[in-house]
Write a structure and sequence with these properties.
Distance between the termini: 35 Å
Organism: Erwinia typographi
Pfam families: Pyr_redox_3
Protein name: FAD-dependent oxidoreductase
CATH superfamily of the largest domain: FAD/NAD(P)-binding domain
Structural class: alpha/beta
Number of domains: 2
Oligomer: single chain
Low-confidence stretches: none
CATH class of the largest domain: Alpha Beta
GO molecular function, one term: flavin adenine dinucleotide binding
Largest sheet: 8 strands, mixed
InterPro entries: Auxin_biosynth/cation_transpt, FAD/NAD-bd_sf
Radius of gyration: 23 Å
Shape: globular
Bound molecules: flavin-adenine dinucleotide
């Protein structure tokens, strides 16, 4: 039943950081709009992340330009609840028109007249422009190799909150991006026996020569890279702001007691097998780490910066036994594994967006967020315009570009009208 029909210029769907940024820019341009959020502002930061998570970047970097984190040191790593509080406070500060508790059920293009009809849990809205800001990480993905055994407790990293929620027994964490390594580390420190399955990864140093890697990626132009390097599309990045921030070092994790294994290959007859690629994956991560040190050194030399040398950053620990003699197969019961945590990333879900903005593989078709369906925009997607597009600071700039695009299109629409 239609309980309400509103006509407005732009509807933004989702009030995570992307929706909040979008709304700020639309407000600044005087474009009437509404942000519809099915839960709460920055819900993903409240309930879609584990309890102890802190931002991966320091407070001076992982924020929007127009507000600092209140009461938090610039170099600190902000706890996730405070990140969510920040976006709520931001929305309040700029009086952004966000309506929470409203779910968008469908968006369809109007027939024979401009704009879109948006069906929501609270009624129908019509808008000229629609911005899909429902996040880069919408649907937790567990790969098809996951075993069917009911005796195993299996969760995605999105459903992991703390060690206490897990049953007794050892844990296999599959995936060693920022989520997988941080969760494995936390579980091992809580006294759990932990296996960590390590695939291809980048692992920048937390800091080098007194600058955080976020700074280095900025000055070296790497946040602005417009596409991942060929062959690196599936390479995850392993960084951590936990315990004051530290470089992710797989050898150190191994010495600490985390049992490292290669990429998880298959589950069969109560056994799990791993690729014999652990040492190679770690070596490639080292290459990426060293490449950043080299680029940083060259930058310092070229610009004559007075930043102290740090030769010890190039010394690696001895390989722990689990790397030198990798386990290629485990009997799950014998190893005592009762839980598998799949830190294997996320997929997209635009089932509600019924417009011509997707390719034959159902991937959003767009250029810098401007989709192939005129009037429909995507925001917050990986590599939307650059490496930084999914991150707090990056999405703000993408949102500005899209708001400007909407403003320009409005000028065309207004031309010749009295
Ligand atoms: C573990 C983890 C740690 C991260 N740490 C950092 C970090 O330290 N620094 C950083 O910059 N980035 C970090 N990120 C990346 C990124 O900042 C977050 O994923 C962020 O939540 C993305 O913001 P978003 O607004 O694009 O999407 P989301 O935060 O996912 O927001 C989308 C919103 O859309 C709403 N929604 C979805 N469907 C509908 C619908 N049909 N109708 C209405 N509303 C809907 C959802 O409820 C949600 O609130 C991290 C990501 C993860 C997974």
């Amino acid at each position: 039943m239609v309980v309400e029909k509103t006509v407005i210029d732009t509807v933004v769907i989702g009030a995570g950081q992307a929706g909040v940024a979008m709304s700020e820019h639309l407000t600044n341009l005087g474009i009437s709009h509404l942000v519809l959020e099915k839960k709460r502002i920055a819900e993903a930061w409240r309930t879609g992340r584990w309890d102890s998570l802190v931002a991966n970047g320091p407070a001076w970097h992982d924020r929007f330009p127009n507000m600092e984190f209140p009461g938090i040191g610039a170099d600190s790593f902000v706890p996730k609840e405070q990140v969510a509080d920040y976006f709520e406070a931001y929305a309040a500060k700029f009086t952004l028109p966000i309506r929470t508790g409203v779910e968008v059920k469908s968006v369809v293009r109007n027939e024979g007249r401009p704009g879109f009809t948006i069906e929501t849990s609270e009624g129908i809205i019509e808008a000229r422009h629609v911005v899909a800001a429902t996040g880069p990480f919408q649907r937790p993905v567990i790969p098809a190799i996951a075993p069917q055994e009911e005796s195993l407790h299996q969760i995605h990293s999105a459903a992991y909150y703390n060690p206490q929620q897990l049953p007794e027994g050892a844990v296999l964490v599959v995936g060693a991006g920022s989520s997988g390594v941080q969760i494995a580390d936390e579980l091992q420190r809580a006294g759990k026996e932990v296996y960590l399955s390590v695939g291809a990864h980048d692992r920048p140093p937390r800091a080098y020569r007194q600058r955080d890697f976020c700074w280095w990626l900025g000055v070296l132009g790497l946040w602005d890279a417009t596409a991942s390097q060929p062959g690196k599309e599936h390479v995850t990045i392993a960084v951590s702001g936990a315990r004051g921030g530290h470089t992710v070092d797989f050898r150190a994790l191994g010495h600490q007691g985390v049992k490292l294994v290669g990429l998880t290959k298959a589950f069969k007859d109560g056994k799990v097998t791993f690729q014999p690629d652990l040492a190679e994956n770690i070596a490639r991560g080292d290459e990426n780490y060293l490449a950043l040190l080299d680029a940083a050194d060259a930058y310092i030399a070229r610009n004559g910066l007075d930043l102290p040398e740090e030769p010890e950053a190039r010394h690696f620990l001895e390989n722990p036994d689990c790397v030198a003699n990798p386990v290629l197969q485990l009997d799950i019961k014998e190893a005592g594994i009762t839980t598998i945590i799949w830190a294997t990333g996320y997929g997209l879900d635009y089932g509600w967006l019924k417009v011509a903005a997707f390719d034959e593989n159902n991937k959003p078709k767009h250029q810098r967020g401007v989709s192939s369906e005129p009037g429909v925009y995507f925001l917050g997607l990986p590599w939307l315009s650059r490496r930084g597009s999914t991150f707090i600071w990056g999405v703000w700039h993408d949102a500005k570009y899209i708001a400007d695009h909407i403003a320009t299109q409005r000028k065309y629409s207004e031309y010749g009208q009295v």
